[in-house]
Structure formats: structure tokens, C-alpha cells
Amino acid sequence: MGVDFKQLAGVGRGRLDRRIFVEDAIYRMELEKIFAKCWLFLCHESQIPKPFDYFTTYMGADPVIVTRKEDGSIGCYLNMCRHRGNRVCRGDAGNAKSFVCPFHGWSYSIDGSLNHVPGHQEVYYGELDIDSHGLVPVAQIDSYKGLVFATFDANAPSLLEYLGDMAWYLDMFLDRRERGIEFCSGTHKWRIKCNWKFPADNFVGDTYHGLVSHISAWKAGFEGTPRRKVDYGYQGYQINPGNGHGLGALWTETPERFVDSALPELQQYEAARLKEAEARLGPVRAWKIAGIHGTIFPNLSLLFQAGAIRVWHPIAPNVTEAWSWGFVDKDAPQDFKDEMRRHVTHRHSTSGTWEADDVDNWVQSTNASYGHVAQRYEQNLQMGQGHEATHPELRGTVGQIQSEINQRGFYQRWAELLAEGQPGAM
Ligand code: FES
Ligand SMILES: [Fe+2]
Predict the structure, then answer these.
(1) For the CA of 88, the nearest atom of ligand 1
(2) How many CB atoms lie within 10 A of CB 80?
(3) What is the pTM of this model?
(4) CATH superfamily assigned to domain 40-142
(5) Which end of the chain is more exposed for a tag (fewer CB within 10 A), N or C?
(6) How far is the CA of 87 from the centre of ligand 1 (A)?
């Protein structure tokens, strides 16, 4: 397909062609060049703690099973029977010695190998090559401080290299305390009639929408909503650490202001863990900045202090399946863990006061992209363009908190990956 992805993504122009949100051919290329190549988030290690535990999810639009093998290592396989393609595992999560396909009964071990074929002697004359019909494994699997990722690309760089400087920022929530984090809620799942890039881009760099889209929740002082002064001048940065990742953070500068920036019901705990966090991370990541939102390219997003993490599964060009969890320090007291679980449910996910505000924006923006005339007019991503800078205490490139620097970085990476292999690729 002779498409100029750099042009579509408006690289260097701060523009975006609306067709990237609705065209089927572009979606199919994303599955090939992005979702079959990038490191994708699978689950947290705390979700599969014991041998034979499993968790089913997607990598792109491909359903996969993540397993804790007998030796304690983690495996990940396409959830697709090698006979006629049925899903071999129908559960969301559990503990199983083997996966028996419900169609004709081929059975697979926790390590993906095919271990039984009904009638192997009688109907296959003993000739079916059992060894070459195991579940299709991912090419590489690795974890970063408990977050498990995999890629279908054997030539992909290591996970650490892929995360790059984003890992330094991820430590702000993964590594504040000795034993790291755990997930404190079940998996909340819902489908949104929008393109997957809208939520990923919203989380990578859009602090700007908060003051309008969430104004009612904000002004009403809903439970779990900071009663911060509402204006466009508060201090902070959009941080672009490279590789399409990005985060937005307040510049809080002192421990007192860091604690004060947290949601009211979380402030006591933030204050209590500050010393330990500073010893582990240094002052910049412990309290000089307070992370708000972020995206790890392509589709893992998080709300730092709010304790929410989610994946945007690209089911179709205009269908995204959101999977969301709450997270909390493993060493936190139980009543705080309970508070975080309630908080994530009340503020985010399907029943959240903030979630519905966002979902409607993404649906409307996707729908508008279908219009024939609308497609003649590009989206604008020029906020803060030409004002990018470096910061002596931060990694990557930064813009002020209201800036579209990170969306530009996200779509630049998107264009680079889609163009890979094209003649004259970037
Ligand atoms: S499709 Fe799985 S056993 Fe036939
Ligand atoms: Fe939002």
C-alpha cells in the first residue's frame, strides 16, 4: 500500500489526517506493523502468582493465554487451537493443568505443547506430527517490575530498550516501596465505539481536556476529585521520553505540595510513604513531580496517583475494548488498599464519574472522522509546537502541562512503524 504515513500523521506539521481513525486498510496495517511488533502489556505478575495459573487477554486483536508454567516462568500463546482454530481457553483467569479444546478435544499443556489428540491412532493413523502442533508462542516475553509484556517479533529490541526513559518515570508508581505494586481490583471490561488511538492519545498527553470535559465532576467536588483551583496556568509538564511514550505531571517541587496535589482521601498515605520513596527514587521522582496520566506506546495507559491502569484493545477500527485495573503498593495497609479499590471504581471504569465524560468524546471524534467532507479537514495538534525544551532535572523532551507535544510524539512513532519496510521509510 503506497501510503505516506508521515503525511497522514502530520509529522512536523502538527496535523492529523482523520482517515487514520476509520480506514479498514490502515487498521489492518496497524495490526501487522504495530501490534504484531511492539511489546504489549499482558498482565501483572500478581494476577498469575502460582504454577498453572492463567490469564486470558488480547495482543492487538489476537486472543492470547498467559500462563505461569510449572517451573515458575511465564508463557504466552495464541488462544487458538491448531486443529480448526477454536479458542482453547474460555475462562478469564484461573488455574488449570491443561487446556482442552471444546470443539474436538485436542488438549494442550500449560507450556503450550499439544499433549493429546483424541483418536490419534484410529483416525490419524498415528501420523499427525504432535510436536509441531503446539499453541503458537509469542517470540519474547519479559517483565518490568511486575508488569508482564510480550511481543510477536523475534527481532524486537529488549523490553528495557523499548521502554527507554519511560521506565525511569514508571518507577514513580512501580518502585515507590520495597515490594512494588499489586493489582487491587478485578478486571473491568467495556467496549467503546471509538478508534483505539483516541484513548491512547488522550492519556499520552491530553491534560487540556480535563478543565472542560471533567468540569462538572471537578467543580462539584465529587468523591475522589481534587478540589484544585481550576485554571490553565498550573505548573507542570508534558514529558516525551521517546519511542511514542508520554506522560503528564505536575511540578510540585516540595514534599508538602506533592502531598497536597493528591486526592484528599489519599494524602495521609502519600505523606507516610514519602521518605521511603525518596530513598529509592531521589527527590525528583519521589515528590518534585506528581504524575497524572501516561501511555506506554501503543495501548497501555495509566493514571499515576489515581491508581488506575488500562489497556485499549483494538477490536476493529471503530471498536475498542477497555480493560482496567486498580493498583496499589503491596506494602500498603489493607484499609488503604480497600480505599484505592473503591476510588478506582467510583472515579474510573464503567461506574466512574470521570470515565463517561471521556468515552463520549472519543466516540464523537471517531464518528466525525467518517464524513466525506470532514475527511478533507485535518485535526489540529499544534499546541505548544516550537516550544519544546529540555529540563535539567527531567529526562526526554518537555512541553508545558497544556501542550500536544506527546500526541505529536505518539503519532510520529505510529508513522515510523507503519512506514517500516516501505521504500524510503523514515
Ligand atoms: S478445533 Fe480444537 S480440537 Fe478441533
Ligand atoms: Fe479524561
Answers:
(1) 2
(2) 18
(3) 0.95
(4) Rieske [2Fe-2S] iron-sulphur domain (2.102.10.10)
(5) N
(6) 8
